[in-house]
Design goal:
- The chain is built from four helices and six strands; from the N terminus they run H-E-H-H-E-E-E-H-E-E.
- The chain is α/β, with parallel strands linked by helices.
- A hairpin with a 5-residue loop joins strand 2 and strand 3.
- Helix 2 packs across helix 3.
- The longest helix has 25 residues.
- 24% of the residues are buried.
Length: 140
């Protein structure tokens, strides 16, 4: 009987530790791209060209990495909920770079006028029709 108590106690300890670790992972906040260093810098046309030439190679180089992209703004959208999006020209009429900003960046995004050149820092999530950057902010 003593052996069963040890096995059940060990199992309970493992279950509680596993549950605590799972709770920690579930409630963990994503990394803030504004504070990350070691970013890859390139211009919008070069990023678009990389994805157009070989999308698989570009995915391995840029997806899930923080990029600083410089380019000319083609459009700025801020909806009523405060979600700000900036579209950068790539030189390719079929695609652009779509930059989704943090909600607290909406005030600074509203000041951007189309045609201006900006530097945007964000996480690259790949290419659908456009190249997508999320968790963006204006780079210094």
């Amino acid at each position: 009987m003593q052996m069963w108590k040890k096995i059940i106690t060990g199992f309970l300890i493992l279950a509680i530790a596993g549950g605590g670790y799972g709770w920690h992972l579930y409630n963990r906040k994503p990394a803030d791209s504004r504070k990350q260093t070691g970013c890859i810098e390139l211009n919008a046309a070069a990023l678009a060209e990389a994805f157009n030439q070989d999308e698989m190679a570009a995915n391995s180089l840029y997806v899930d990495k923080v990029l600083i992209i410089s380019g000319k703004v083609s459009n700025v959208q801020v909806d009523n909920a405060g979600h700000a999006t900036v579209f950068l020209e790539t030189g390719d009429p079929l695609s652009s770079i779509t930059c989704g900003f943090y909600d607290d960046e909406a005030g600074s995004v509203k000041k951007i006028i189309p045609g201006a050149t900006v530097r945007v820092k964000g996480n690259c999530t790949g290419k659908l029709a456009d190249i997508i950057l999320n968790k963006c902010s204006l780079a210094d």
